[in-house]
Amino acid sequence: NAGVTQTPKFRVLKTGQSMTLLCAQDMNHEYMYWYRQDPGMGLRLIHYSVGEGTTAKGEVPDGYNVSRLKKQNFLLGLESAAPSQTSVYFCASSYRSSVGTDTQYFGPGTRLTVL
Amino acid sequence: GNSVTQMEGPVTLSEEAFLTINCTYTATGYPSLFWYVQYPGEGLQLLLKATKADDKGSNKGFEATYRKETTSFHLEKGSVQVSDSAVYFCALSGSSNTGGFKTIFGAGTRLFVKA
After folding, report:
1. Residue A76 contacts residue A21 (beta carbons within 8 Å)
2. So what's the pLDDT on residue B101?
3. Which range (A51-55, A68-72, B65-69) has the least confidence?
4. Does A2 touch chain B (CB under 8 A)?
5. What angle do CA B58, B30, B109 make, to 5 degrees?
6. Which of B106, B94, B83, B102 is nearest to B19 (CA)?
7. CA separation for the pair B49, B60 (Å, rounded)
8. Residue B67 has what DSSP assignment?
9. Is the pLDDT of residue A85 over 80?
10. Which residues of A touch B36 (CB under 8 A)?
11. Which residues lie closer than 8 Å to A9 by C-beta, 6 or more apart?
12. Which of B26, B21, B17 is nearest to B74 (CA)?
């Protein structure tokens, strides 16, 4: 099992450019998440999905869009990149136990710089 | 709403020293509590968890006890090693205002262990 994989690992964009980050998981998890990690701010949830074809906004959704066309994939899009979107982006997936625990499995991250 | 507060870092210790990283939470209902660890250049991975009051989670010599009376989940290790140098995140998974469950992460505590 590869677990959760993310592509690309690094990317540099100019302001106004667009890009898509790809997340894939092979654990048959229903739930998938996109976070951004900034120094001193921990992890902030951007968008999440509770199943194929469904998405929902998290804490900081502005400037991002997502799609979950297949259960194993969760795409994060930046339509017009801004320097404030310079960050490390993590994808995660999870199962849901009968008591509602929510252990998340994380990818290795994508480091994005917007100039 | 739910929240997690953990001690600010960085924490610098010598090898074989005792480690405590404090974590307190605010939540409605009965959340599950987690510690995740992030090694340099990697994504987060689950270190340990506890799903009900008085449960003790343990892994790799780390322990944390779910204390409902003090709303705490402090991480401890009796003798740290250089390889324990990482960022540690306390997290809570509980019911959200909009239904279902959501995970909230603390800001993270960076640990440096000197040889």
Report:
1. yes
2. 64
3. A51-55
4. no
5. 50
6. B83
7. 13
8. B
9. yes
10. 104
11. A108, A109, A110, A111
12. B21
Hey, is the C-beta of B40 within 8 angstroms of any chain A C-beta?
no
Question: Please, are residues A46 and A64 in contact by the beta-carbon 8 Å criterion?
Answer: yes
Say how far apart CA B49 and CA B23 lie, in whole Å: 13
Residue A1, token pair as written in the block? 């099992």
Distance (Å, whole) CA B69 – CA B71: 6
Q: Is B49 on the interface with A (CB under 8 A)?
A: yes
Q: Does B43 touch chain A (CB under 8 A)?
A: yes
CB-based contact B101 A96, cutoff 8 Å: yes
> Residue B41: what pLDDT?
87
The answer to whether the CB of A49 falls within 8 A of the CB of A68 is yes
Distance from CA of B71 to the nearest CA of A (A): 18
Q: Among partner residues B42, B51, B108, which is closest to A42 by beta-carbon distance?
A: B108
SS3 B82: helix
What are the angstrom distances between the C-alpha of A51 and each of A27, A48, A56, B100, B105? 13, 9, 10, 13, 22
Please name the member of B89, B93, B107 whose beta carbon is closest to the beta carbon of A102.
Answer: B93
Q: What is the pLDDT along chain B (115 residues), one digit of tens a residue?
A: 788 999 888 999 999 999 999 999 998 888 899 999 999 889 999 999 999 999 999 999 999 999 999 999 999 999 999 999 999 999 998 766 655 567 889 999 999 999 9
